[in-house]
Design brief:
100 residues, alpha+beta, 29% helix
């Protein structure tokens, strides 16, 4: 039995560059299997699938999710700071500036 191939994209972005890999894989493969087969982990050893979240079009997905044709897998870097905390600090700073 020959498995049908689908095309996917795997993306990992750093501040100064981005790695985009186009792959043809067997239908029914999981997100984790596709990432491992892509070779991106060898290119970017800092990626740890136990730590880095993955998603598609900005929405997180499970590593055991099955892929469909034209899926774009995004590997997210850990946040350096909580966006809510940064906004709170900015608002507090602006409030103090307005009192001067």
């Amino acid at each position: 039995m020959v498995s049908e191939q689908i095309q996917i994209e795997i993306v990992y972005a750093l501040p100064m560059n981005q790695t985009v890999l186009m792959l043809k894989i067997n239908q029914g493969i999981t997100v984790e299997e596709a990432i491992r087969e892509s070779g991106i982990l060898a290119r970017h050893p800092e990626i740890d699938l136990a730590v880095n979240k993955v998603g598609t079009y900005g929405r997180t997905i499970a590593l055991n999710a099955h892929l469909e044709h034209s899926t774009r897998i995004e590997i997210y870097r850990p946040l350096l700071a909580d966006p809510k905390e940064i906004r709170r600090q900015r608002a507090e700073k602006a409030k103090l500036q307005s009192l001067k």
